[in-house]
Each structure stands twice: as structure tokens, then as C-alpha cells.
Amino acid sequence: DADVTQTPRNRITKTGKRIMLECSQTKGHDRMYWYRQDPGLGLRLIYYSFDVKDINKGEISDGYSVSRQAQAKFSLSLESAIPNQTALYFCATSGGTGVHEQYFGPGTRLTVT
Amino acid sequence: AQSVTQLGSHVSVSEGALVLLRCNYSSSVPPYLFWYVQYPNQGLQLLLKYTTGATLVKGINGFEAEFKKSETSFHLTKPSAHMSDAAEYFCAVSDTTGNQFYFGTGTSLTVIP
Predict the structure, then answer these.
(1) Is the CB of B43 less than 8 angstroms away from the CB of A90?
(2) Nearest to A43 among B32, B41, B90 (CB)
(3) Where are the alpha helices (DSSP H) in chain B?
(4) Strand partners, B110
(5) What is the spatial distance between Cα B94 and Cα B101, in angstroms, rounded to a whole number?
(6) Do B100 and A48 touch (CB under 8 A)?
(7) What is the pLDDT of residues B48-90, one digit of tens each?
(8) Which label site among A1, A85, B60, B83 has the fewest CB atoms less than 10 Å from its CB?
(9) What does the angle CA B73 – CA B70 – CA B65 come to, to the nearest 5 degrees?
(10) Chain A contacts of B23, Cβ < 8 Å?
């Protein structure tokens, strides 16, 4: 089984709808991240969390919110989706103190019409 | 803030030829550096990383990268390209806290038979 899972894998929604993307990990890592990937722009950080009580905004947090329900679960919400939020969204985890590489989920492809 | 520049959004090489993907970073402190690979419809996976010690770092699938502080570079190389190397490659940098990672915009590698 994959260490980092994301649901759904694909989602089409309409402008103005609320949508939640979910991420679960079995690596036992404290740090979790949400990124969006757009062609030509690479990955941009939306939110990150170092434990259940620690949530931090990333580079592009406007229009998004997150919830860290448990060490293993980190959800991303779009309260009122808009077309320019159409993108590929990745969850990632990282463990331990100091610098460790990130482990990525398979991604969620979101289309807002 | 740190930043990463990947020169060349698309690189094509012949099968068996040298692969060279360029990455330059800007950082006021010694960074930690990473190369990730993304195959179609998948998440990112770590190729190699530099934290401290030897500046020539070997990774998976025959890739290696050299940290050159004087040139603020961390270029990725592979002596002989294989068809299976066709993918998107991302360079990333983190500071010594490992709190955040900054990604380049990616380089798409095409391998020509």
C-alpha cells in the first residue's frame, strides 16, 4: 500500500462549490504539506503543518483552508471554488527534526468549471 | 526567501547520450538541495539529495549531482540516457530548518530513440 494517499484522484466541480481534498499517510511523519502544480510554474506551497496544533500558510494560501485532523490526516478545502484553482494538487510528508526529503502522494487533479 | 532556477523547461537527448539538467539556487545560507522526478500521472519521488559532506551525490537510476557553492549550482547528470528516463525533473532547496521547500519550475526530459 502507498505511504501517502490522496482522495479523490480526479474531481470536476463547478464554480462556487465547496470541495475537500484528503490526504492520509502511514509513514508516521509529523510534517505534512499541500502543494499545487501548474504547468510552467512548478510546485507552490499552499499550507503546511508540523503537528496537529501547528498550521502555517504557504506562498499561495488565499482561497484555501486546511484541517489537520490527526497526525496522519491533512485535508485541504476550497470554500468556494473558482476556475483558476484548476490544477494538480499534491500532499507531501516529511519526518524527523532537521531536513528530510518529502514523500509525495499521487496527486489530485481538480477541474473547476 | 530562497529561490530555484531551472534552465530549460524542455530538454531532449538521444538514447545513450549524456543527460544534463541545470539548477541554480539563491540562498543566503548553505542550503539543502534535492532533485525529484515525476513520471506521468504520478507524484514526485526523490532522486538524490545533498545535505552536508561530499559535494558529488549519487542517486537512484544512475543519476548524480554536484553541489558547487561558488556557482550556486546543483546540476543533475546521467552519463547515458535511457528511454525510461523520460519524465519531469524538479530541483528543490530547503534551509537548514527543513521547514519549507522551494521548487524550481521543472524540466521535461524527452529521450529520443
Answers:
(1) yes
(2) B90
(3) none
(4) B12
(5) 5
(6) yes
(7) 999 888 889 999 999 999 999 889 999 999 999 999 999 999 9
(8) A1
(9) 35
(10) none
CB distance B64 to B78 below 8 Å: yes
Chain B contact for A10 (CB, 8 A cutoff): no
Judge: B104–A42 Cβ closer than 8 Å, yes or no: yes
Q: Which chain B residues have a beta carbon less than 8 Å from that of A5?
A: none
- The Cβ of residue A55 has, within 10 Å, a number of other Cβ atoms equal to 17
Residue-wise pLDDT for A18-51, tens only, equals: 999 999 999 999 999 999 999 888 899 999 999 8
How many CB atoms within 10 Å of residue A46?
A: 23
The C-alpha atoms of residue A78 and residue A89 are separated, in whole angstroms, by: 12
B89–chain A Cβ distance below 8 A for any pair: no
Residue type, B78: K
Nearest to B38 by CA among B47, B29, B30: B47
Average pLDDT over all residues of chain A: 93
